[in-house]
Model the fold of this input.
Amino acid sequence: MIDAEFSSLSNLPPDRRWHGQAYPAPIVVALIRRQVHQPHTSENESHYLLIQRKGSPYDGQWALVGGKWDFGETLSNAIVREVKEETDLDTTFVAVRGLVSERIVPPQDKQQGAHFLIFVCELNANNGQAKEQEEGAVGWFSCEQIEGLNGSGAIIPSDYAMIHSFARARETVPHIEAEMRAPIDGGSDDPIQLVRFERIEGSKFTFE
Done:
């Protein structure tokens, strides 16, 4: 059952919405892992790339790398760009692993609420090292360390849940890039043309 405060979120006045949102904001986040050899064993351990956010929202919290999907970008270009901007790491898009509608209600009156549509994407890390940029510190964390972050309240809870839900997923969410040439404002008699309707398969995941 949906709590009443979430079902009434659409009634939140514009001045109490994150950046005055009129619609859910499209966000891309990246699941990027590397395999780290464990000393004195023959096994590797998965480590995931996280960023410690600077500024609102979630100042000081660890999170998946990502950000806003800019107008006119393809999904794969958006997430590769965001990772580059936030970590200086070159990556290759693999697949969409999940889609999350995240609604945030303010705990107190006069605080802001928000609504994000989050595309959780898996990427391969190419050559290079992740480096801190303006958005915050970056680091690789094992599953045990991520559990520790969650236990101490140092990671955004929904990001922690996304890692648990999608990090080991092998299902690929169908990802279509559709491109149209059309007079959507009704200002001409030009024909409506479908230029592209293509399923994006991405690349195969590989371990470093």
User: Anything to note?
Assistant: The two ends are 43 Å apart (CA to CA). The beta strands are 25-37, 44-52, 62-68, 91-104, 114-125, 138-142, 176-181, 193-199. The longest helix spans residues 75-87.
